[in-house]
Amino acid sequence: MTILDGKKVSNDIKDEITEQVKKMKAKGEKVPHLAAILVGNDGASLTYVGSKVKACERVGFESTLVKMSNTTSEVELLDKIHELNEDPNIDGFIVQLPLPEQINEQKVLLAVNPDKDVDGFHPANFGKMALDMTTFIPATPFGILELLDRYGVETKGKHTVVIGRSHIVGRPMSILMGRKGFPGNSTVTLTHSHTKNITQITSQADIIISALGVPNFLKAEMVKDDAVIIDVGITRVPDDSTEKGYKITGDVDFVNVSKKASYITPVPGGVGPMTIAMLLKNTLLACERHRKNV
Ligand code: GUN
């Protein structure tokens, strides 16, 4: 069994990006600038956005964090998005999800300039992704592809089962794994809350990508020998024995499933750090595209 070490690979990617930024600086070019809008004070979102800003510093990017209150109106958020769309200093930006209930997420995602949409959530970018056109691939699916690529995990002709159909992970992942090329060329089954007899499906899978958010959902008896297991779950489970009072727990019963798996991602230290690395990569791409005006 091989651990797909997202922490190590993400550090490698950050080192590669750092080198590229140094070269850009040496040529007198503007360094990439990522902005993040955070609405409200959800603890997990604060942590994620904080990690994204810290990662920018690490690779030499500029970053801007826009914090808006929990009572921000949809119009106020849309105004801020238009401001960032127009700001020539900002190469890319994200609006951290979820948003407070008074704000319509679809309207927000549609308002982001697709050329600055480094999350790849705008329908124009999502459509391009599905059509194999150059675009921004959403960071978590992009990170999973990169992990599979760097570890040389075979995907061609394999049966990939994706658990969860979220717009951020499950849905794009199901499209990407079925695309032509590597990683891809898989036969994909997308499962969700209405799927019947999920164990029958997962136990036939060569690759399982679980993005459900239910701690320890995937048990050893749901997995066949030598399966590749990608755990996207990052749920905070109360735990008094830790300093923070919670433990980050994945969708996979790691202790038992890892005994059967050929490759498996840990939680934490698997997919999570890869998401941040690929957001940086998308921001670098956005900056290069703006410079070349393509
Ligand atoms: N919330 C959870 N994951 C993500 C992500 O990748 N991007 C944004 N904007 N919000 C998220």
List the helices and strands and how they pair.
Elements: E1 2-3, H1 6-26, E2 33-39, H2 43-59, E3 62-68, H3 74-86, E4 92-95, H4 105-111, H5 123-130, H6 139-150, E5 159-163, H7 170-178, E6 187-191, H8 198-202, E7 207-210, E8 228-231, E9 235-238, E10 246-249, H9 254-257, E11 263-264, H10 271-292
Parallel strand pairs: 1-11, 2-3, 2-4, 5-6, 5-7, 7-8, 8-11
Antiparallel strand pairs: 9-10
Helix pairs in contact: 1-10, 2-10, 6-10
This protein binds guanine (GUN).
Kindly describe this structure.
This protein is of the alpha/beta class and 294 residues long. It has two domains: 85 residues, Leucine Dehydrogenase, chain A, domain 1 (Rossmann fold), CATH 3.40.50.10860; 135 residues, NAD(P)-binding Rossmann-like Domain (Rossmann fold, 3-Layer(aba) Sandwich). It is 40% helix and 16% strand. It has a six-stranded parallel beta sheet with strand order 1-11-8-7-5-6. Helix 7 links the parallel strand 5 and strand 6. The chain is globular, with a radius of gyration of 19 Å. The N and C termini lie far apart (43 Å). Bound molecules: guanine. Guanine (GUN) binds next to strand 4 and helix 6.
